[in-house]
Fold this sequence. Notes:
By secondary structure, the chain is mainly α. The protein is 81% helix and 0% strand.
Amino acid sequence: xxxxxxxxxxxxxxxxxxxxxxxxxxxxxxxxxxxxxxxxxxxxxxxxxxxxxxxxxxxxxxxxxxxxxxxxxxxxxxxxxxxxxxxxxxxxxxxxxxxxxxxxxxxxxxxxxxxxxxxxxxxxxxxxxxxxxxxxxxxxxxxxxxxxxxxxxxxxxxxxxxxxxxxxxxxxxxxxxxxxxxxxxxxxxxxxxxxxxxxxxxxxxxxxxxxxxxxxxxxxxxxxxxxxxxxxxxxxxxxxxxxxxxxxxxx
Length: 251
């Protein structure tokens, strides 16, 4: 017997299963080795994480401007509020562009020593450590083909992280409450920017796991299946589904 809760969980799980099999298919048909898998994870971490940051900065800015409009700011107060809000948005954009992209550039220096790719600079993207524009130029030159395909399943798996602020605002609108009134500023900031960094940590742990298997000569497709299952499959939702089934069986 399928409950409403089961149906909800299945709707969450299904896209992740699709992403899981797309990732496996790419690795299988393109005959990727460990170095290819590592760099595809690195690229996905950079693209998805930075895209999430851009979405959230843009969305927070629009939310602020909407609040200014709804509160009836006029004249100098309106202009000052818009300028301050725009300045804060530009500060966050500059800071996270350098910090987030620089973190990946620094990590690429380490990866390039153990997983060198043809055409990739010996220092990875070290010269782009504080220059996100140069980093993205090098990324498009060296990694987007063919690893850009891996961004598709990663985006599907990380869809909730990118869409989270939109869903929260829709929920708060349904409840006729302001988003900023529901949470303290610190928690809002964590919501906006902690997600991409948490995902970076997870991806980089998987990269180190790949590296360990590679140096231990455990370099089989089965390793990639296991790692992909850890990354793509929503284990908390699967656990909930199993719990629901167990309770239904006991009843």
